[in-house]
Amino acid sequence: MISFMNDYSEGAHPHILELMLKSNLEQNTGYGEDAHSDRAKLYIKKELQREDVDIHFIPGGTQTNLLVISSFLRPHQCVIAADTGHVNVHETGAIEATGHKVVTVPHKDGKLTPAGIVVVLESHSGEHMVQPKMVYLSDTTELGSIYTKAELTAIRELCNKMNLLLFLDGARLGSALTCSSNDLTLKDIAELVDVFYIGGTKNGALLGEALVICKEELKEDFRFMIKQRGAMMAKGFVIGLQFEALFENGLYYELGAHANSMAERLANVWRDQGFSFYAPVCSNQLFVILPNDMIDRMAKEFGFLVLDKVDEKHSVIRLVTSWATTQGNIDQLIEYVEGL
Amino acid sequence: MISFMNDYSEGAHPHILELMLKSNLEQNTGYGEDAHSDRAKLYIKKELQREDVDIHFIPGGTQTNLLVISSFLRPHQCVIAADTGHVNVHETGAIEATGHKVVTVPHKDGKLTPAGIVVVLESHSGEHMVQPKMVYLSDTTELGSIYTKAELTAIRELCNKMNLLLFLDGARLGSALTCSSNDLTLKDIAELVDVFYIGGTKNGALLGEALVICKEELKEDFRFMIKQRGAMMAKGFVIGLQFEALFENGLYYELGAHANSMAERLANVWRDQGFSFYAPVCSNQLFVILPNDMIDRMAKEFGFLVLDKVDEKHSVIRLVTSWATTQGNIDQLIEYVEGL
Amino acid sequence: MISFMNDYSEGAHPHILELMLKSNLEQNTGYGEDAHSDRAKLYIKKELQREDVDIHFIPGGTQTNLLVISSFLRPHQCVIAADTGHVNVHETGAIEATGHKVVTVPHKDGKLTPAGIVVVLESHSGEHMVQPKMVYLSDTTELGSIYTKAELTAIRELCNKMNLLLFLDGARLGSALTCSSNDLTLKDIAELVDVFYIGGTKNGALLGEALVICKEELKEDFRFMIKQRGAMMAKGFVIGLQFEALFENGLYYELGAHANSMAERLANVWRDQGFSFYAPVCSNQLFVILPNDMIDRMAKEFGFLVLDKVDEKHSVIRLVTSWATTQGNIDQLIEYVEGL
Amino acid sequence: MISFMNDYSEGAHPHILELMLKSNLEQNTGYGEDAHSDRAKLYIKKELQREDVDIHFIPGGTQTNLLVISSFLRPHQCVIAADTGHVNVHETGAIEATGHKVVTVPHKDGKLTPAGIVVVLESHSGEHMVQPKMVYLSDTTELGSIYTKAELTAIRELCNKMNLLLFLDGARLGSALTCSSNDLTLKDIAELVDVFYIGGTKNGALLGEALVICKEELKEDFRFMIKQRGAMMAKGFVIGLQFEALFENGLYYELGAHANSMAERLANVWRDQGFSFYAPVCSNQLFVILPNDMIDRMAKEFGFLVLDKVDEKHSVIRLVTSWATTQGNIDQLIEYVEGL
Predict the structure, then answer these.
(1) Mutate to test the interface with B, among D101, D134, D306 (most CBs of B within 10 A)
(2) ipTM of the assembly?
(3) Is the pLDDT of residue B201 over 90?
(4) pLDDT tens, B10-37?
(5) Minimal Cα distance from D3: which residue of C?
(6) Rounded distance, CA B182 to CA B145, Å?
(7) How close A38 gets to chain D, by Cα (Å)?
(8) How far B78 CA sits from the closest chain D CA (Å)?
(9) Which listed CATH number (3.50.50.60, 3.90.1150.10, 3.40.50.300, 3.10.450.60) goes with D2-7+254-338?
């Protein structure tokens, strides 16, 4: 059975494995202070066209989210997220477990807007309520949508005005940055947000996220936090070398672009067949509305997620493509759909 | 420069990499619910000669420690550890960050004793103090020593009598189980403790610890905890397949035994040269007392940790061997020492 | 200026102060283990017509809420509350600061319903989300409404079926139990919920809430939690004797009834003048919708809270009566309103 | 039976009760923003001879300790305390429950020394260990001893040099400041430490501690923390007015001095009888070494704490005097002792 369940079903892109094999018997310094991690940081800084950021490699996304939020907020402060936000829904209360409330705003195609953030700010006044201090958003969002440069800039300006920190979860940033409708670069993002991460796990790595701290005041002692939350790997070089491979020659973008193009081909087929989408088609996640009986039949041959009911007879399914999705897999699904 | 700094300088044992490469393009279920993880659990249960344990694969040791302690204690309960214990000294307050006090006992060669535990129990009475509820120990200890079956049994009996949970940190269990003086098996350990883990990171894996929950009452909902602490990897199969490789044909023991035998050769040389040890020679860590000037010279050619001053003119250094330590490396160090 | 701002503007009811004065130089055991606290517990148990509850006196409401929730939930579990719930909105993230998420349901007149709770249960499945385990409600609610016996019973039945704990915040239980429309007794409540508290601060005491733990499994070691959260007062008898005075001869009910009757008189006047209410009139809190200019004028002579805008020209104000509200104060406000 | 168990057995000093009665029916603003609290702050600032401090009234000592430590430390930072320190031993892990480790130093008569603090600093290096950031001490200490101005100054200088915050727990500051050997004033303390509190509970109040934040950078948003930890009392004026009474005309010092003089009389009797002390006689706590059989007999007529065994035949008892200890009570004990 071919799975479109997610973008983390397979191992690592072969280029990554090659580097891993080649360097396997080298003796590295532990805890991320090795030469591979250093080179990876160098390559990423080159993309950002600046030196004055701190980069840390963290094993996974939930861990990165909880690290960022718990390290940069004081105890009485909260983070603002879309109600669909990963930190709100899908992390088993990881943020609250570090002591912080997630205050939510109804999403727009999975996205936050300045107007939504303002509603939270206006309803939080005084010491009997948590103090909003950070905005959390993800690019791509949980619904596969992306932020435009104008949208992200508007949120940045609100953050400046209201003294809020801006954190971008880039678990699927590879796909976001290579969308046809994207107008943001890594450099833009580093200029617009205070802290963000470049997701590896969902874009060809075995594991790992590259956290980039842009704001000077947030940098101090961050490695203590990493250690305290159990996110400092003894063999940190295992993550470092993967980002080295991903950023040495643009592999990161190639993998995102591949996933997107696979998704686009799929989207066209659904569209041609007259099906509609629950969320705008954009990146490597498709949310297709299908009749339930068709979903049942399709589930016997392909793996995917049934997200939600739409009405009595229809539901939304999520199909995800990845760096590892082959033309052959896509062709099989297309053939199946066209044969319906 | 050849490093004896630690046992996590190199990547993974070639057998592990082979399996990783071979299965790289398989589509696996996420979050540790894949076939590799299942097989790895099966192999480990076979070693334990029992089915009724829950096994979870966790990326790292500090994370495993904080997960176990925070999941199994109620808010007012504390864990008892040797003052040298990893959870007390070297985890940046990871345990306290989950809300629990670590109460310490002076160690004996890095080990806890029933008598030491009793001192804690007797000095903690009533609701103005934390309530001791768990005993934490590691095998091998921070000083490379190991617990005998008699010692571990004595602690178990005290735990039974005083209604304490017993947790064994096995970050270096591969080395412990293959020490010449060891009389414990994995099966014994699973019978004697309530929860323990089998360390992969320090015994040939890229990352990963296999947590074994033996006590029925502790099993419920543990995957929620793993997710909440950010320890549930999307590509959980990356850890699962490493333990599959380690336990399919006894590789885990081979690697531990190799590290120990390398350490033993080294120890003999130091002994022959008349140097003494800060801690009993046993597993893959050697604690040698050397003149400071010799340490300075040696540091130019070999990597190792200078642990502590002994007197004005002497210090203790730590030398660690691993699955990856070669005869050649050992020979070079021996030659150097004999040439002094 | 006469204040209808809240029910905690004045000190304590004179009967309480009398007992305080009379016993001032007695030597009491510390930390709530004194004879006054014992007698107060006895009186309360008499009201509950049962012996098998644990009663603890806690200084304040937020503290009681955070103690209950953090003591009875495991780390991955959350509490369900109305979106207007005190624990959700007005405690500066006190619950999250202990590690637990508050999951909310849109309120109905400030109340939770079984249907609302079911929505939460159905949307929380599996280990990537928090696990709903406790229902929090307050009687009276934040909008001054009360639960009927039928309503509370329905929620209890759902809790039984779904294995949820039921916690009733009774900060204003004095007013709730003496509402004209109330059909619950303290005894009923103790039978229907797992844990609740009888509010003193807002019903004539200087400070203090009487927490009643009804469910056997929740009782163990609770005093450790009280101490750990800083809620164990050295002079615990100061709270104990206040509940002694409140429950020796039914003073608690008298004070609640007085506050309610004062509110009812006020409500009639507003009603007669043709004003409408934002929430059903019931207990000692009135939520009146008034023209903004009238609010501005009234604010020069009386203290009250302006809660929220209703439209461009109208807002809701909250008027609260208490055990200490005098006929004279009410008459002055009535006169003012009738004179408009 | 006459109790010398502690200094919180009785209610409040009559002057406090008078003010409470007199103002009982006033309508006060809630949450500590009332006129009584304002006046109390004014009086305290007068003692400190400065305006630029923030003062908050907190119900109890453990709560104040946990508030200060959790509000001013970042997640990876720890507090240094004497091993006998209240935060280390007698608060059921309250500090750890907020996420912070307490690192201890062997005490000298209950006190910390710069040398002891330096040992902690030297043994904590790098991100694998907690980062020492605050020094916690109490005056009087758990053993009734006090800090001299020279001692406190020396610790301050170390804190300046090492960038540490200095926090003084003054639960028994009334007794400390009025010891015959004391050379510190409230003004000195406010100059030497970053934050401290003036204990009310153990010096004549029903409850309450006056927290003084001296360091500008620590002041921001502290009321949010108070609310979050459940320490913001609806009737905050109940604490405010007690400090008003204590500081309007020097009552605070009178009560401390009275307790000390009662203790001194007692000490002389023990001394005359040839008994020795476990800790230097100084403030309102006496630690007398007595034969066990004498302790047993005495326990039938007087209340006190048996602290610890000294040898097979002797133990230390603790006798505490207070503002409420009468000449009569002392005479009875003296008579008893002299009659032995």
Answers:
(1) D101
(2) 0.97
(3) yes
(4) 999 999 999 999 999 999 999 999 999 9
(5) C27
(6) 10
(7) 18
(8) 8
(9) 3.90.1150.10
